[in-house]
Amino acid sequence: MNNNPNQPKEFDFFIKLQDWKAKEFNPPVGITDPVGTAYIVNIEQLKLLLQDPHASKVEALICQLWAYEHNYNVQFYTFVNTLSDAYERLTNLKALFIGDGEECPYMNSWLELGEITPILKAFPYLEVLQVRGGWGLQVRPLQHESLKTLVVETGLMFIEPDTINQICSLNLPGLEYLELWLGGCHRYGDDVGTEHLLPILAGKVFPSLKYLGLRSSDYSDNIAFCLAELPTVIEHLAILDLSMGTLTDEGAEALLNFPPVNQLHTLNVSLNQLSVNMIQKFSQLNCHVIAEPQDDEEERYCALYE
Question: DSSP per residue over 172-197, as a string?
């Protein structure tokens, strides 16, 4: 389902937070549309929403954190604890966002995240989980049968290798959509990014995966080289999204010469560092290619740094 007219048609395949209409929760009005609305709340609004007699019918919540608040470094855990303690009042929750309330394509968040495992344990029927922040996301190994969409937008400098390892340790048999904003790997070495992504790139985890977004990465070329050597994951994907990164003609050439790419429904390589000639070559593929616009900046910075 897709109720967002601005959402590309290729996303019709998947359940996303955008499937619900976002609306700020107004305590005096209360819950008026628990099925079609993703209620936007701060922590005080969330506590009031939980007292509403229709709280058990709410399907989607957008829990916003703000860097300018004095307790910005503990907001994440306050939300996680409040939500997990209220699992008996949110029995119909399907989609949850916790993160920076500032939404920007070139986000640079300084908000600290934390342990998300209590949410997955408290809500076994959750289908969409999206987090946005600077760093510090953690999750312990567990099995979650219902989760279909996982989005992790990190916006300080990088998504830590430990976080990638922990995500790969999750047993998510129903996961169809995985979007990771990767940032940089320079603090850990040039190849560490792809090294920790190998279980995903090789198709060893998440057997139902159809969308793989490895976005805003400063090692996009290395990802492309690995994908071109590991046909397993490509052969099962519908959409590969490498947008907002640092993909050059060298990495793009590896994908272009890799026949399984033609089995994709959509390949997104927009907002990278591709030449006009390379974009023309991509138009010859048998899949739908999103290659415009490209980043015209001379320096190769991924989107998270801007």
Answer: -TT--EEEEEEE--TTT-TTHHHHHH
3-state secondary structure of 244: coil
| Residue 305: closest CA among 108, 105, 66, 26 | 108
Nearest CA to 109 among 73, 81, 161? 73
Whole-number Å distance between alpha carbons of 24 and 129: 19
Any idea how long the chain is? 306
Backbone CA torsion sign across 68, 69, 74, 75: negative
Cα 189 → chain centroid: 24
Q: Report pTM.
A: 0.91
Residues linked to residue 100 through DSSP beta bridges, in sequence order: 65
pLDDT tens-digit profile, the chain (306 residues): 344 444 555 557 799 999 999 999 999 999 999 999 999 999 999 999 999 999 999 999 999 998 665 565 688 999 999 999 999 999 999 999 999 887 655 555 678 889 999 999 999 999 999 999 888 899 999 999 999 999 999 865 568 889 999 999 999 999 999 999 998 655 545 555 688 999 999 999 999 999 999 999 989 999 999 999 987 899 899 999 999 999 999 999 999 999 999 999 999 999 999 999 999 999 999 999 999 999 866 544 555 544
Task: Copy the structure tokens of residue 8.
Answer: 């590309």
- Domains of the chain from N-terminus onward: 9-305 (3.80.10.10)
Compute the CA torsion angle 68, 70, 76, 82 (nearest 10 deg).
-130
Residue pair 46/61 in contact by the 8 Å Cβ criterion: yes
Spatial CA neighbour of 296 closest among 279, 277, 271, 262: 271
Positions of E strands within 101-185: 128-133, 149-154, 177-183
